[in-house]
Design goal:
Strand content of chain A: 15-25%
Strand order of the largest sheet of chain A: 3-2-1-4-5-6
Shape of chain A: globular
Oligomer: homodimer
Distance between the termini of chain A: 43 Å
Largest interface: A-B, 125 and 126 residues
Helix content of chain A: 40-55%
Number of helices of chain A: 14
Structural class of chain A: alpha/beta
Largest sheet of chain A: 6 strands, parallel
Number of strands of chain A: 13
């Protein structure tokens, strides 16, 4: 691939443009927002700006549609109509887009390969664009039996060039998966925050008691709401199914609380804890790993102190999270580090006045 | 107060012991776990260990019960029976404890003042104990019209000595508030994780797509499950009421998704966002504040780099959170800093290669 048409230059489009330009590929872009398009060229994300999808597509081997999900299908169709040999997209919902493209252009749809990079977010904007955004990230592709093999290969190769790891599932399966891990959590956090938000003195009291755990759970509710109605409508069926699962399970838990069934509650809690602890982490260090839990006070500099200590000792922190306790503002730094070298790090932390709990990872 | 009886020496009891000892108060403790009791003395949290509540209470002006919630009522009664002039506790549920104490000892119950410090967690253990754990934290007291005024004043003064800020509500009101901000969020996170946890390949795929937002929302599900059945049973009524509110609101949201009502969804999302953004922060800097949002890559040292930069410039970070985007592993450092001095900090961040979004706080 020597020339790519880029439709949409937000965070994802801009990052794709930066990465492709760095790889020596010529990127010609179009965007409904002329100011953003100019900014993309200034940032070096695109070589040339154009005023239409047809102009962007001319001479390009691949067109990438990187717009909000509600506009993807029509722009994929426009790119196919303009003669793009291969078209892909980055929309966070897949089956409805595939269906719309197939319905509109049954003969050309084979040249479209649906995609969804699990990196960045529509909320961040062009100024957060980064050529390395996709390095090591999962990029879902959703080819169907109708997909042209050449188009499929071209998109795989392009995504590989961006440094992403490819995972392929059906469009419907993709939509079910993201409903469970992304869309329903967003709605659950939003609703939890909404239920807690009452007015007046009551609110002030509630919020004085709302500490780290509540903040963790509702953090995603603080993001830009604008993208979600489109996603919810596009992925309606999968979200309703996953929400119904969640509602059913919550009703069971409510029943256990009402019945005072501590044993059954403990089972659910233990199952969830085990699943949460086994969430795969993005680990880049070799050999056995250990988890260190370090309770930390709520003051600036603590994180820097702990991470600097690791840096000075040459300890690579494979994963770091700050777990807030359910109550209070203080927290626990949870780190995953290679077993090799952990002794020195632990001793240094203790010498610096920290308490360290260490456990081997299963 | 010159002598305090401490019943229970976990994280909270141990921290109380350290703070009181530092203030020159003699702490005499009892704990069902003899090893932990010895460790508390070794840590300097208690001056003397005893083998019974009666022995601990002898000569003490106040007894503090700091055990898991399921055992609080019986130990409060034991302390009253042993002649403690004033008794308080740190249980995370209040009305059932008050009711049990009143039922068991109607005449002595006036000497008991219920309490709940919003700091630490039963999950952390004695080794996380810290004399400053309660500095600036909210400590809820739940006196009732039946409470003896002298007992009330004594407990207020003791809590003030620990550095905590006192908030007083009725026991029932306390239980409703913590159900909303603590107990229901725990059950919601647990259930979300449990619903997402299926077996085999499906699980591996789900978890490859489960990025920062999902991790934030389910983090509290990774904590020790053991404390929750007791809390759920003790606070049964308030939790069921709050869970029903949550279930009702989630069912409304499900209906909006099913109906494809984007406008109404946007309203809910915007209301929740506004409430989340207005969560009070623990702010210790004077003057107007600004919020800086800095997208950061997923590599060790980034936090240290950013916080060190602030340290070098003398910029006090009043609040710091790491907001994971819903997709991908990278995140955004969200900092609240004083407007005075923020220009230099922002310039230094940009010079170091970061993108910085700045906004004034309402």
């Amino acid at each position: 691939v020597r020339r790519v048409a880029l439709v949409g230059t937000g965070l994802i489009g801009g990052s794709i443009g930066l990465a492709l330009t760095r790889a020596g590929i010529e990127v010609r872009a179009v965007d409904a927002d002329a100011g953003r398009l100019t900014r993309a060229r200034e940032l070096g994300a695109v070589a040339e700006t154009t005023g239409s999808v047809a102009a962007a597509v001319e001479g390009a081997e691949v067109a990438i549609v990187a717009t909000p999900v509600g506009r993807v299908a029509e722009l994929v169709v426009a790119a196919l109509d303009a003669g793009a040999p291969v078209v892909t997209d980055v929309g966070s919902v897949k089956a409805p887009i595939l269906r719309a493209v197939h319905a509109a252009r049954p003969d050309a749809a084979a040249r479209f390969v649906g995609g969804h990079p699990m990196a960045g977010s529509e909320q961040d904007g062009l100024d957060g664009a980064d050529a390395d955004l996709f390095a090591g990230a999962t990029w879902v592709l959703t080819p169907t039996p109708a997909t042209d093999a050449g188009a499929h290969t071209t998109v795989r190769s392009l995504v590989g060039q961006l440094g992403a790891e490819i995972m392929e599932v059906t469009p419907e399966h993709h939509d079910q998966l993201v409903a469970v891990v992304s869309h329903v959590p967003q709605l659950a956090a939003t609703t939890l925050m909404d239920v807690a938000a009452v007015t007046g003195d009551e609110q002030a009291m509630l919020m004085r008691l709302a500490a780290g755990g509540f903040r963790d759970m509702t953090r995603i509710a603080a993001g830009d709401p604008g993208i979600w109605p489109d996603i919810c409508i596009a992925n309606q069926d999968a979200i309703v199914t996953a929400l119904d699962d969640y509602l059913r399970s919550l009703a069971v838990v409510r029943g256990l609380v009402a019945a005072g069934d501590g044993d059954a509650l403990l089972q659910v809690l233990e199952r969830a804890r085990s699943a949460r602890r086994n969430l795969p982490r993005r680990v880049t260090v070799a050999g056995p790993l250990v988890e260190l839990r370090v309770p930390v006070p709520d003051r600036p500099g603590v994180l820097a102190e702990v991470t600097n200590l690791a840096g000075r000792l040459g300890v690579n922190i494979a994963d770091l999270e700050i777990a807030h306790s359910m109550e209070g503002e203080a927290g626990v730094i949870v780190m995953v580090v290679a077993e090799a070298g952990v002794d020195g790090f632990e001793q240094a932390l203790v010498a610096a006045g920290y308490h360290v709990a260490r456990s081997a990872l299963e």
